[in-house]
Structures are given as C-alpha cells and as structure tokens.
Design a protein that fits this description.
Number of helices: 15
CATH architecture of the largest domain: 3-Layer(aba) Sandwich
Number of domains: 2
Helix content: 40-55%
Order of helices and strands: EHEHEEEEHEHEHHEHEHEHEHEHEHEHHH
CATH superfamily of the largest domain: Glycogen Phosphorylase B
Strand content: 15-25%
Number of strands: 15
Largest sheet: 7 strands, parallel
Distance between the termini: 11 Å
CATH topology of the largest domain: Rossmann fold
Structural class: alpha/beta
Length: 398
C-alpha cells in the first residue's frame, strides 16, 4: 500500500521522533510498501553533507536511501520544530493510509481537518511525548493540550504509544482511560547491525582529543530549546561532584549534539572546571554516530521531566554494548532497566553516585556490556516491530 509518514523533524536533525520514522520507513519499504515521509525542509545548517573523513564507515548507502524516502515541504511559517505546511492538504489524498507522528505543532490540525474530509482513509497517530516547557511556552502547551490535543488524537482510527507505562501518566492518559481499545503499545527499536560493538576508532579519539585508556561516558541528544528537558546541566553538575569527591578517579565525557543551548552548556563546563574532562563534539553525521557509541563505557540520559518519553538513544547505546544510566521517568525507565539502572530525575547526587559506582565495579561493568547487547537482539530489533505496524496498516485498510 502507499503510506504517508508525517513528522516534524527528520535526519540529519537530532531527535527521537525523526529517527523512529527514519528506521520505520526503511522497514516498511522492505516489506513491499510504498512509503513517503512528509517533513519540513531542513534548516540550512541541517543539510546532508557527504562524509569524507575516517573512520571507514558502513551502511552509508542504506542510510542515504532512508533519508531519500523523505519529501521536504517548505513551511509557510516556522518556529523551532513547529511548522505550518498548508500544502500538505493537497498531498494526502493519493495515499492509502496516513500516519502522523505527534506532536507536530502547526501541521497536526491540518491532518485532523483532512481526516474530517476523508473519513474513509485510515489515520494512525503515534503519541511520542508530552509537550512541556517553561514560561509562556508552558502556558501555550497547557492550552493546546487541553483544547487541541483531544480533537487531533480523537480523529485517529488507531493510536500508538511506545509504552503504556508512559501513556498512563502522560497528558493523554484521560483519552486512554476513556477508550483503551483504541490504543496500541508498540515499542521502538534499533538497527542492531548499524549499532554494534566495535573497537574504538583511533580517528575519532584523535579528532576529539580523547584518551583511549580513560573510563568514558557519553551523552547524545539535541542541545536546542526544544530539548531543554535532556538534563545536560544536571549531568555537568554530577560530573563536577564526582571530580570533587573522587580526586583520584580520572574519567572523560563526550557530549554529542548541537543547538542554541550548546553555548550555555560550554560556559557551565568552564565555570565548573570541567574543560579537560568534558568534550563537546558539535554536530556529527548520521554515518559517524554509531562509532561515537563505540568510544563509550557508559551512556547517560539524565532527562528532567516527561518531555522524554522513551529514549531511542538508550537502545543505540545498548546495541553498541554500552550499559546505560537514565532518569526514572515513565517510558524511559522501561528501557533503561533492561540495560542498566535508573536514577531520580534532577538529582545531582544520585546521578554522580551511580556513575562512579558503575566505573568502580570493573567486574559488573564487563558483565553488563555483554548483557545489554543480548537484550537488544531479543527485544528491540526493528524487524518484528515494523512487521506488527505493517499488520496494523493492512487491517485498517481492509
């Protein structure tokens, strides 16, 4: 069948929603579906550039093909990750089924209007995460969630969520209680061929001025205002606390990501005296990303609230043989407990203690690296997940 996947962000932009669609489109195409991703045209600094540097990279052709499933529509209006794509209403009639990835401010309501005009065309909506924010953004989100979210989700033929654990405490929990049969739990997955254990890349170690012998922790995520909830500030404070309490313990941290908040985090790093410990890579390519995971001994996702709903980066780390530490948040903890431990959100001392104890227990660290890869292979491979989604599509179209 011909399927439209609609999402607000898409690679090369860093973001879990786009990465999920990035993988799903390829899997659905392999099953024989004709898939097109409709997404806003990227900002100029997000344009795809060829990778010419070492290390030698695999899967480049496959990744480029997945990116090519996308048709970039030029927004009439844009603010951050919100985009108004009025032309999309003329695009959807050609598809057998439409799948919206929510939230998508500016365009989600256009999809609702399209569905009202085309009740016979199936609409699936994946509820990825709550929308939260400080200040006036928080007030806007509160209004939107109360008035528009129920109307948008309400027109879907099927609603999908990565975990009921998250849904039951989310802003959509009321809709779930009213109509549980309309919801389907379908976890996200990971490409466990692209992300796998490997030797550390000497080229990346050299490029980022890293010591291959030091215990290394990694963070991967957006550093823009839309991802304020990632908790990078908490992580930096925790690293400073470790350095203060355990002066003989030498370690290093890699922070992968880009955005308008990066400069603030770099300033905080200097204030905390972590210049020689924390290394900011800035923007990297999708092709290089798997090799950054291979540099790490521990992955940390210190999110501060339920803006973080799942954490696909946790799966990427686990597939690479890297155990994880993440915040004890609904949805996130479901994954993190499979591949590591959880800590209390926004708790600097708890995070610092957990990181240090992991590195101090060499036997446990070695054992965990093997176990996390096994978990991914058994539970989070994309193949079976995409097949379930395909079966849902077929059922709805019939």
């Amino acid at each position: 069948m011909k399927i439209a996947q609609i999402v607000s962000t898409y690679p090369p932009y860093y973001g879990g929603m786009g990465n999920v669609v990035f993988q799903t489109a390829s899997g659905l195409a392999a099953l024989g579906h004709e898939v097109e991703v409709l997404t806003p045209a990227p900002y100029a600094d997000q344009e795809i550039k060829p990778v010419t540097e070492e290390p030698a990279l695999t899967h480049v052709d496959a990744l480029q093909e997945q990116i090519n499933y996308a048709r970039h529509l030029e927004p009439t209006l844009r603010y951050g990750n919100a985009s108004y794509l009025p032309q999309i209403k003329n695009e959807l009639d050609q598809f057998d089924l439409v799948h919206l990835h929510y939230p998508f401010f500016g365009t989600a309501n256009l999809i609702r209007k399209w569905k009202k005009r085309n009740p016979h065309k199936p609409l699936v909506i994946t509820y990825h995460m709550d929308t939260r924010g400080p200040g006036w953004k928080g007030l806007f989100f509160k209004y939107y969630n109360k008035y528009w979210m129920p109307r948008i989700l309400g027109v879907a033929d099927k609603l999908v969520v990565s975990s009921f654990d998250y849904l039951q405490s989310s802003q959509a929990s009321g809709m779930y209680k009213q109509n549980q049969e309309k919801w389907m739990e379908l976890t996200f997955g990971v490409d466990n061929e692209r992300f796998q254990p490997r030797q550390k890349s000497e080229a990346l170690l050299l490029r980022n001025n890293l010591n291959s012998d030091l215990p290394t922790l990694l963070f991967v995520g957006g550093m823009d205002s839309a991802h304020y909830f990632k908790g990078i500030s908490v992580l930096l404070q925790a690293l400073a606390l470790i350095r203060e309490r355990e002066r003989d313990f030498k370690f290093q941290a890699i922070l992968v990501g880009e955005g308008d908040l990066r400069r603030d985090f770099e300033v905080q790093t200097k204030i905390l005296g972590l210049n020689n410990i924390v290394h900011f890579t800035g923007k990297i390519s999708n092709e290089e990303l798997p090799y950054y995971y291979n540099l790490a001994d521990l992955f940390v996702l210190p999110s501060i609230n339920q803006g973080e709903a799942f954490g696909t980066v946790l799966l990427e780390a686990m597939a690479s043989g890297v155990p994880v530490v993440a915040s004890n948040l609904p949805g996130v903890r479901t994954v993190a407990q499979d591949g590591g431990v959880v800590v209390e959100p926004n708790n600097v001392a708890d995070l610092a203690r957990t990181i240090y104890e992991y590195f101090a227990d060499h036997e446990k660290m070695s054992k965990m690296k093997g176990l996390v890869r096994e978990v991914v292979e058994k539970k989070y491979s994309w193949g079976p997940i995409v097949e379930k989604l395909s079966n849902l599509y077929i059922k709805l179209v019939k």
